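Why does residue order matter? Because the sequence determines the fold. Keep that principle in mind as you read this record.
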Amino acid sequence: MKIRTVIVDDEPLAREGLRGLLASVEGIEVVGEFGSASEARGALSGLSADLLFLDVQMPRMTGLRFIELLEPEPLPLVVFVTAHDSFAVEAFDTRAVDYLLKPVHPARLARAMERVRDQLSAMRESVLKSSRPGDALAGEAPRPISRLMCKAGERVTFIRVEDIQCIESAGNYVVVHVATDRHIVRETMASLEQGLPGGQFVRLNRSLIVNVETVVELQAQGQGDYMAILRGGKKVSVTVGLRELEQRLRYG
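Structure:
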């Protein structure tokens, strides 16, 4: 499996060190290297990258902010690399595959690459499965989803789509929020989004889809950014779909 990889870090020595470690990892092809998030943002779409090693703390734009501003699909898998472990919770909240501390240890990098390969294999298998004859009719629109099936141990729970408040991406899974409950569903965000009622759900950022009925407030954050306040107090950044969201909130 060839893994097209991009490194983004403002420290030249850190980039050099990581590039040296990756040179010994089978299947890695470094297709891009950038010293800032702004440089990477303009070039990433043309690199067809599978994997992004991303520093968290960088001048002008942090790695966390960089991820928020990327277009929803398709996106490379992300492994954060930083000298500070205080950002771990925020990093994993972006659904990153892993989080490495500098200086990166070869054994720790190897474990991160195992996770990367597992996720890439599952994603590519999902694409192949959907393209096989008999799995779906060519050109046929996906059937709208009315209920989601959640399996936990020996229990199978069915969730009505209209009861869903929001859906968060978690790699090859999604986390479905219903009132005070959370359910894990083995489904990718992209495939699930295709079957949701388009007039009821909108993607707010790369890792979150919300039921527009749950949005109670939009707060301006400066620089054209907004924060959406959901029923129950959950706050989420709005990086895509703002105009569409405003229209649906206004006209229903």
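The CA atoms of residues 176 and 182 lie 6 Å apart.
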